Amino acid sequence: MEAQVLELLNAKIAVCTACRLHEGRTQTVPGNGDPNAELMFIGEAPGANEDQQGLPFVGRAGQLLDELLAEIGFSRPEVFVANVIKCRPPNNRDPMPDEIGCCEVYLREQIEGIRPKLIVLLGRFATQYFLPDATMGGARGQPFQAGPWLILPVYHPAAALRNSNLMQTLREDFAIIRPLLDQAERPEIAEVQIGHAHGPAKEDDDSQRSLL
C-alpha cells in the first residue's frame, strides 16, 4: 500500500461517525507501521492509552509486544499493527456486532492494501473475528488459511500480563512467526474472507473441522 493511500484511509477513519463509539472517543486509532509490511498484527480495540495517543498498543501490552517482536528480530516500524475496532469502546467493553460491521470496511481496506504474508491475531476477539467458533486454547499457535490470508492466533499480550502462566506459551507462539514468514508468499488475490478459515493441512481431514 502506498503511504499516501494509507494516510487518506487514516483521514477517513478520523472523521468517521458511523457508529456510537465516535461519541466517547478522544481520537481514532487506525493503526500504524509499515504500509508494505509482510507481517501484520490485529488486536481487538483501543484502550485508554491508545485513545489518548491515537496509536495502537502503547500501554503495558504494547511494551510486551515490542519485547516479543525484538526477540524474533523485528521492530515495531517493520510491521503493521491495527485493531478490529478503531475507537475505544466505553469501559473497554467488547465491541457490539453493529460496531464491528461499521468498522469492518476499514480493516478490510488495510488488509487488502498491505497484503501481508502473515496476519497474527492477538487474542480471543481478533481470533473469533476470523474463526467464529474458535477457542484460544484450541487455535493458538496454529496457522490457518482464511481465503488468501495466512493467519496465526496467539494470546493477547494483556492476557499474558494478567496470567503469567501464559507468558511462555506466547513466546513459543511468537517463535514460529519467522519460519511461517519464510515459507509464505504475499497473496495475489486481495480479498478478505472473514469467517471462512480452514485449519492447517493434516492427514486426517476430520481434524481440520474441529474449529469450524
- Strand tally is 7
Assigned CATH architecture: 3-Layer(aba) Sandwich
Compressed to H and E, one letter per element, the order equals HEEHHEHEHHEEHHHE
- CATH topology, by name, is Uracil-DNA Glycosylase, subunit E
Question: Which strands sit side by side, in order, in the main sheet?
Answer: 1-3-2-4-6-5-7
What is the percentage of strand-forming residues? 5-15%
Shape: globular
Biggest β-sheet: count, sense, barrel? 7 strands, mixed
Query: Count of DSSP helices?
Result: 9
Number of domains: 1
The rounded distance between the terminal residues' Cα atoms is 31 Å
- The named CATH superfamily: Uracil-DNA glycosylase-like domain
Q: Which residues form runs of ≥5 with pLDDT under 50?
A: 192-212
Rg from Cα: 16 Å
- CATH class, named Alpha Beta
Mean pLDDT: 88
What is the percent of helical residues?
25-40%
Structural class label: alpha/beta
